[in-house]
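We treat protein structure as text, and this decision shapes the records that our systems exchange. Below, we set out a record of this kind in full and without editing:

***
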Amino acid sequence: QLHLLESGGGTVQVGGSLRLSCIVSGRSFSSYDMGWFRQAPGKERELVAAINWSGQRTYYIDSVKGRFTISRDNDKNALYLQMNSLKAEDAAAYFCNGKGATHDSYWGQGTQVTVSS
């Protein structure tokens, strides 16, 4: 079982930057594909970015391409999301997710991102 703890959320102005972190404890972090999801009030949770177990493959939704960067450090059991040029529509609760080879899935408690104009 994995335990995931997000941090780094906060309030930033439009155009600003934030770096989210997810520290993972439990089973072998390096064997899990990881992702960042977000959920705004009244909306469904959506996948924002994902990275495979080795860090060699990444995926982004179109709306964040060129602005967000997902990365991981398997030695530190950490997942990151660098968010630049933030827009009002990026405001949401952001969640870290880990998915194993047997499709076991784990979630963090979330960290809030607020973007002010």
